[in-house]
Amino acid sequence: MTLRVAAYSKINDTENGDRIFERSLSCLSFLEARARQKKIGAQPQSRTQELKAKVEKLKKQRDRLRAEIDVNQNLQKLRSTMEGNEELEMADDSENAKLLMLMAKHTQLKDALLAHHLMGGYDVIKTNQDKSLCFSLATAYQGNILETYNIEICLSKPLRILRHNIPPFIPVEALAEEENMQKNVRGFLDALSLHLNGFAARKQQLKLVKERHASVEVLESNALCSHLVLMFTKPKEKTALLCSLEYSDHTRSLPTHVKIQCEEQDLSGSAQWQKNTQLLQDTPLHQALESMRKTGQIL
Q1: Is 0.85 topped by the overall pTM?
Q2: Burial 224-245 (b: 16+ CB within 10 A, else e)
Q3: What are the angstrom distances between the C-alpha of 51 and each of 44, 54, 56?
Q4: Which of 51, 182, 273, 294 is surrounded by the most beta carbons within 10 Å?
């Protein structure tokens, strides 16, 4: 009898455990389903917030573009009015109107200065109680303004150069005589400007070679940058090549003669290097070296 009661009690305990386990599983399933519903419901809300933020960003961008368009239109109108020598009628006397006026004048002045330099003009300052003129000659290469040089000319007859900061290897006095400065000051300044810009361009090219082509060694260069000797390396053979460049015309930035050697053998006329020789004569030095490197001619 005791055994039968114990067995019955054990069966009941097992059934109760199973029911508890089933209820626990049901509870977990319910919680998981609820969590999924919350996640699904949260997604549209998150997407809505993202879209709202994007709309606000686009609105700000639109407002900024509208403001830029308004400023540019007002500047264009002001510049046209000033060029036509008409009376300026401002809508108001606010700080914005004054700022627009200053911006328009500044832009107009920059355009005038650019046109002045493009037409070969020179900045002139009267000095020594109007007895002499100081001319400023700016140099530039590939759109970049480089050094500016100054020369002062006495106006008393005969004209003479008082002082200047032009490099000593530029033949200032010889150019003044060749161009007959006494009768043609502008011709003298033009010739001097050509020499200065040719020197500045050659100097800038050499600087770019040193910055961009670490594998190219500059063995020789003079102050005028009219004679250069470079050393290349052929990629496959690892052979050193010497390249000599002569700039006989000091007003130009391209060499008049190029010679490429390998172990004292002239390669300039060979089929392989004739094209590169012509490239060096027709293309700025740093760009020619870049083309040769890309085609595998040099390291």
Answers
A1: no
A2: bbbebebebeeeeeeeebbbbb
A3: 10, 5, 9
A4: 273
> How many C-beta neighbours within 10 Å does residue 109 have?
10
> Which residues does 163 contact at the CB level (< 8 Å), separation at least 6?
151, 152
Which uninterrupted H or E stretch holds 176? helix 172-178
Query: What does the domain layout of the chain look like in residue ranges?
Result: 80-118, 123-200, 213-294
Distance CA 62, CA 56 (A): 10
Distance CA 267, CA 283 (A): 19
Q: Give SS3 for 74.
A: helix
Quote the crossing angle between the two packed helices 285-294 and 271-282, to the nearest 10°.
150
154 compared with 41, residue with greater pLDDT: 154
Would you state the structure tokens that stand for residue 59, as one six-digit string?
């609105």
DSSP E strands: which ranges in 224-264? 227-233, 240-246, 257-262
Given a contact cutoff of 8 angstroms between Cβ atoms, the answer to whether 82 and 104 are in contact is yes
Comparing CA positions, the residue from 239, 262, 144 lying closest to residue 201 is: 144
The letter for the amino acid at 223 is A
pLDDT in tens, 103-152: 766 666 666 555 455 445 677 787 887 788 888 998 999 888 899 999 99
Neighbours of 199 (CB within 10 A): 25
What's the token pair of residue 8?
Answer: 């019955």
What is the tens place of the pLDDT at every residue in 170-211?
A: 999 999 999 999 888 888 999 999 999 999 999 999 999 999
> Which of 193, 249, 243, 190 has the alpha carbon at shortest distance from 216?
243
User: What six digits make up the tokens of 247?
Assistant: 């700039």
